[in-house]
Structures are given as C-alpha cells and as structure tokens.
Amino acid sequence: MVRIALDPTPFHHDAGFLGFPDIAARLGYEYLQITPHPDFSWFFRHPSADDAYALKFKKRAADAGVTIPAILPVQRISGPEEAGRLAAVRNFTRVIELASLLEIPVINTEFSGEPSQFNESEDAFHRSMETLLPILEREGIQLNIDPHPNDFVEDGLEGWRVIRGLNSRNVGFVYVASHTFHYGDRATTLLPELGERLGAVYTADTFDHHRSHGLRYISNPPGNEARIHQHLRIGDGDVDFAELFATLKQIGYLDRPDALIVSNVFAEDERADEVSAFQLEKIRELVASS
Question: What pTM was estimated for this model as a whole?
Fold first, then answer.
C-alpha cells in the first residue's frame, strides 16, 4: 500500500524537467515527487511554468505511467523581512494553483525563517498561513512541513508544536530521516505524537553530528553556526532505519492508503541510477520487514 516516490534532484544534469517521469519509470518507480527545478518552480523564485507547460508535464507523466503524489516548493514564507515574505506568499499561491491544475493533492515544504530571529520568524509564518491556509482548504490540498536545518524551528517536537498551533487538519508534518539528528533523534517518541498528522517520510541517511564530542565532521572556524547534514544512501550513515520503520508500522503509517515515502539521496549524482534502484529495493525491504 505504501507509495514510494523518487526525488529527481540527482538527475537535473541528465534530463530536462519534462524527462523526469520517464527516468522514474525506467528505474521502477511508480511515483515521482516534483522538487525545485528552474523550469518549474525554483528555490525562492516565482514558478516559471505556465499552465500549458504544466499540462505538458502532466501528459508526460501519464504516458510514462507515473503518478505525481506531491510537490515540494521552497519559499521564504517565514522570512522576517516583510517584502520577501509577501513575495514568498505570492510565489506559494502560484504553486498551489499549479498543484490544483495537475491534480496533485499534497504540497510538502519547509518552514524557512531565521533561527536567530525565532519570534519574528514565527510571527511571519503565521501571517503567511493566514493567507495560504484558506486557499489550501478551498482547493482541498494537504500541506506538510519539515523543520529543516537552519529554519527558524529545527527541533522535531518544537516544529510539531508550531504546526499543531495552526489548528488546521490541512497541515501536517514531513519527517525527513536525514534531518533526524537536528530534530533531536526522537523518532520513537515524535512519530507517535504526530499520529495521523504525519504526511510524508523522506528516506536518506546522514551522520550524527553530535558524536565524537561534536567532531564527527568539522566546519571551520570552530563554533560557527553552519548546519551540516547529508542525504546519503540508506545504510551509509547513522540513522536507525529499522527503528524508524518499526515505529512507522507501530503508528499505522505503513498501512495507510495515503502513506508516502520519498527517496531523496543527493550525495552521489554520478551513480544516480544505481543508488535510486537500490533505494527503491531497500525501502520495499524495510516496509516488508516492519
């Protein structure tokens, strides 16, 4: 029942945006999540796709037998600078229009904002949601949010509190495995708390930057505020995927008809075909054994 989708980011240099469904189908994926691309919707910019281009992509996906369950835009919807926040809301509104046109039921995104300006960013986030939520609810689109490293909220539990405070069933949580250690390494307690509000799970591995007294990997100068993580092949880092999938099974996520698991390895573009095929098989094994 679990839908396993490919994040096509590793293939940006191998094919144009319209070619992504064919790549997904060739690798055995039935599902593809749209992620930032200059020909559709790039980071922090207004989408470049008009309706005709979007419908051309929809036909390419249908011809390839690939379903698009979700789209991932990244906009500064929590930016404390007002002009930038308003631009992000305008850009995000167009993303919602495109999702509706393509009959995509889910938008997965990130909080954005500035961790050094938590209160200002949280206020900006709520002002953006005052505009965006009525549009999402009108279109019947689910929004899921990831507390991404260097967003105004990075801890998993604190991110859930912000989402819950919106008081809207149209907003849920994206659990990104490669952000585990920025979330607080709390899958076994956070996921049960999310329950049915868990909207998507991304699978890629990463190292625990807290290990070896903070020297698992090094960024200079010492003590800087850089956030570091990886999107590695499952098994190449420190994430406990057996524990993660056992918890997903325990809370009933793997039995849901809308369960979505996205493979999003970014570290090995030169082996993108091999790694993507490995991820698909590995995710299937983890689901079956949980």
Answer: 0.95
What CA–CA distance (Å, rounded) separates 280 from 268? 15
Amino acid 161 reads R
β strands within the chain, DSSP E: 3-6, 31-34, 67-71, 106-110, 142-146, 171-176, 198-203, 260-263
pLDDT in tens, the chain (290 residues): 899 999 999 998 877 999 999 999 999 999 999 999 999 999 999 999 999 999 999 999 999 999 999 999 999 999 999 999 999 999 999 999 999 999 999 999 999 999 999 999 999 999 999 999 999 999 999 999 999 999 999 999 999 999 999 999 999 999 999 999 999 999 999 999 999 999 999 999 999 877 787 777 777 787 788 888 899 999 999 999 999 999 999 999 999 999 999 999 999 899 999 999 999 999 999 999 99
